[in-house]
Write a sequence for this structure.
């Protein structure tokens, strides 16, 4: 059993899909460096990218909509400086309204995809995007059509591997029949487990790697929030999420006691136990799992990668089991935005 709270050891690796890249078993979510979670110290965020790479993190996650392209621009110098060492993942499909960034639409049609890929290539300043995800499913476009158009990008060398985000098990099967899907990226954590119904079994069956986003519950599982409404800045996206607000946040904070107790036993933090739980799902479900915790701070990337070395016992897993079913409030205000909304 590891009791290491922080550390400088490098992490293990995992493969994304049968023909995909081998990456560090924990990636880095870059979204918060430019978007969604309040003000950022750009110098510290840049140093965090470098520190992550030293620790064996090679999968870096962004999307075209994070800050209207700003996040891709922000990580571009780092990606270019380490082009052969890092796997850069970006996404298309969510359309934001510049007048009101909280209003969002979804587009999966081929002309829109074309426009998006060119924009991401330009902002990242690369010839090829390593992993290109469809960010959300537009139910007005058959998924076979979208993945067919994405496969053309692979044939043209604009993209290396394909991924999908927030699709159901059946949608993943339909997509994978058109072109191999390397990774499915959806929310998966101690307190968001709806993906275990259809997406996880389908990913296992097809040999698709699972990339859990928000594995720290958008920070909630670190124990940082007791009264989220007060703790979040005005522009923080989490203010729109039912489980973060008012009475729900207080009720959900009380659910974290088992995480805290297990953390004390390991000399670890609650966030590390939450990450150890996600990593453990690889052996529980029999598939590759590469979570992408998001942070803008070096000390936290050290803490998060050290969590890959924490082994949870069966008793500890059992103690964490009830949390997800007791959480109050949805993970999005509009669950139609998630795979669970279509199951
Ligand atoms: N496909 C999708 O639809 C989708 C949706 C959401 C996110 N994502 C991707 O997934 C990545 C991760 O998800 P996320 O950022 O939403 O949630 P997360 O990784 O669960 O949590 C991130 C939050 O936790 C804080 N944090 C990180 N490490 C910490 C630590 N050791 N101790 C205390 N606090 C810590 C971060 O703050 P600091 O930054 O200040 O450390 C941030 O507020 C994103 O960056 C993005 O790339 C994808």
């Amino acid at each position: 059993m590891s009791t290491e709270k922080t550390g400088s050891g490098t992490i293990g690796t995992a493969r994304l899909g049968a023909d995909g890249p081998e990456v560090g078993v924990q990636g880095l979510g870059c979204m918060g460096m430019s978007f969604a979670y309040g003000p950022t110290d750009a110098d510290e965020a840049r140093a965090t990218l470098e520190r992550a790479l030293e620790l064996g993190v090679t999968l870096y996650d962004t999307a075209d909509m994070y800050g209207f392209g700003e996040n891709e621009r922000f990580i571009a110098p780092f990606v270019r400086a380490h082009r052969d060492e890092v796997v850069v993942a970006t996404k298309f499909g969510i359309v934001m309204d510049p007048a009101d960034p909280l209003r969002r639409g979804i587009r999966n049609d081929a002309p829109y995809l074309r426009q998006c890929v060119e924009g991401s290539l330009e902002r990242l300043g690369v010839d090829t995007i390593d992993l290109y995800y469809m960010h959300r499913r537009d139910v007005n476009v058959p998924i076979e059509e979208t993945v067919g158009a994405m496969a053309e990008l692979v044939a043209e060398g604009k993209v290396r591997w394909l991924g999908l985000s927030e699709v159901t098990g059946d949608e993943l099967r339909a997509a994978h029949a058109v072109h191999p899907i390397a990774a499915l990226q959806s929310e998966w954590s101690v307190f968001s487990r709806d993906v275990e119904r259809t997406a996880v079994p389908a990913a296992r069956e097809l040999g698709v790697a699972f990339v859990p986003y928000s594995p720290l519950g958008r920070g909630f599982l670190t124990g940082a929030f007791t009264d989220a409404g007060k703790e979040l800045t005005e522009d923080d996206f989490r203010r729109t999420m039912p489980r973060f607000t008012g009475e729900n946040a207080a009720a959900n904070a009380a659910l974290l006691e088992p995480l805290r107790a297990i953390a004390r036993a390991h000399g670890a933090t609650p966030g590390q136990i939450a990450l150890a739980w996600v990593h453990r799902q690889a052996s529980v479900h029999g598939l590759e799992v590469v979570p992408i915790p998001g942070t803008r701070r070096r000390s936290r990337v050290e803490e998060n990668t050290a969590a890959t070395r924490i082994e949870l016992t069966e008793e500890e897993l059992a103690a964490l089991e009830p949390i997800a079913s007791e959480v109050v409030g949805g993970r999005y205000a509009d669950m139609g935005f998630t795979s669970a909304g279509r199951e």
Summary: The pocket of NAP is lined by residues 29-32, 37, 61, 135, 165-166, 185, 213-219, 222, 224, 271, 292-297, 300, 303-304 (CB under 6 Å). The chain has 13 helices and eleven strands. Residues 21-337 form a domain with the TIM Barrel fold (CATH 3.20.20.100). The longest strand covers residues 100-106.
